Amino acid sequence: GTSVMWFRADLRLHDNPALRAAVEAGPDGVVPLVVLDDHLWGPGAGVRTACFARLLAEFDERIGGLHVVHGDPVAEVVRVARAVDAGTVHVAAAHTPYGARRDAAVERALADHDVALVRTGSAYAVSPGRVTKPDGTPYRVYTPFHRAWSAHGWRAPAPAVRSVPWLRPGGRTHRIPEVAVPEGVTLPPLGEEAARRRWRDWKEQVTQYDDVRDLPGVDRTSRMSVHLKWGTIHPRTLLADLDGHDSDGVRSYVREIAFREFYADVLHHRPDSAHGYYNPALARMEYDRPGESLDAWRTGTTGYPIVDAGMRQLAAEGWMHNRVRMIVASFLVKDLHVEWTHGAAHFMDRLADGDLASNQHGWQWVAGCGTDASPYYRVFNPTTQGKKFDPDGTYVRRWVPELRDVPDRFVHEPWTAPTPPDGYPAPIVDHAEERREALRRYEAVR
Ligand code: FAD
């Protein structure tokens, strides 16, 4: 028999249960299929599409050729499966609203030809939907989810696939598109080898994770997000490596991995929360029409050093430190009164690790309309956040060269320096005033 391995991400040979299932079902040949779907390759999906194109090129070379087609997945997957007379098409289950809908449609179309769509595993250690409250309803708050998730446990990583009887149906395969990285962006090394290397190099430091994770200047978080996003390494692999090790660092790292799983679970149960309010009560908040202030935020020229540093890091690396993601998000929503959806869309555009579940729910958390909602009235003060988490200004100076020579004590509030730095803007708003304004608007809908 033959089978089709339909890759949508997960371009990896280690710990890939769906690929193993495809190999078992296809001793006479496994088609390594990729469908270039306009929904995902449309215009404007800059950094993410560039990442995906690179990953495809790398994997294509690694396995000696992917079978790449272009078009509507429903028609294309059926066509390829029939062309090789495959009995099954294998995937890792998708849990985004679009992915789940697409797969259901492909599954129906395949069934008309007696071909089964077989979902094996997912991008998570515990698949979304698996952990529920005792009454069967989903968790809405992280801490109890985390407890249940920990108790649920995860399977041991699947052994690496060593040899696959790859099968490439005749006919032209579509070229892997070359997508230029948007100007000014430098991406980290991508691909399975790079992911595994990064993890090997970093994992010894996990014991210190708890002490350093909030310090963007120290910059010692794992940076596994881009690899997890693209599935070039599976979270199970990380968890299995940490299993049996106990320290504050390990516990705290596992908690963050579980955060990613929590948000995927939330999105799975509430697909509407990808773009709509998780807590609809806050949908009536009054926001300003986005204009110049949104531009200043995007370009890192708000006059608040930690905000500008974060936005410039995003522009340069397609990544931003978690603490700073929270600060810039709070600033957009509560100091500039711009609705979170605009910020979330900009992040999805620019992040190499842009992930619908973590991003939209990270934003909603900050905006006070998400799960566990950080109460709306807790407004981040960008100056005190800067002083607390970047005390000597290392992070700010790294990304905002205009502030390099400003003495430490002024670096997070350069407008108080005897000689304000050349070329750096004055704050575009007054934080204390905007905080009051944000609270006024909140009171109005409460
Ligand atoms: P580490 O600190 O080393 O953490 C390890 C892993 O745990 C991360 O790779 C990630 O998979 C997971 N993780 C850590 N923190 C979180 C969190 N708060 N929520 C969910 N998962 C977490 N993460 C994304 O992967 N994609 C996004 O699009 C994204 N958007 C965000 C938007 C906002 C407004 C906020 C506040 C957070 C967002 N995050 C997002 C979460 C977090 O900022 C990143 O996962 C983290 O900065 C990635 O760096 P790291 O791999 O070095 O993290």
UniProtKB/TrEMBL annotation:
Its name, as the record gives it, is Deoxyribodipyrimidine photo-lyase
Write down the EC number: 4.1.99.3
**Biological-process GO terms, alphabetical:** photoreactive repair; response to light stimulus
Q: What detail does the entry give on cofactor binding?
A: Binds 1 FAD per subunit.
**Family membership:** Belongs to the DNA photolyase family.
Q: Which UniProt keywords apply?
A: Chromophore, FAD, Flavoprotein
Task: Name the catalysed reactions.
Answer: cyclobutadipyrimidine (in DNA) = 2 pyrimidine residues (in DNA)
Residues in Photolyase/cryptochrome alpha/beta domain copies:
1-125
Protein source organism = Aeromicrobium marinum DSM 15272
Q: Give me the residues that bind FAD, please.
A: 209, 221-225, 253, 256-263, 353-355
PROSITE patterns attached to this UniProt entry: DNA_PHOTOLYASES_1_1, PHR_CRY_ALPHA_BETA
Pfam (any one): FAD_binding_7
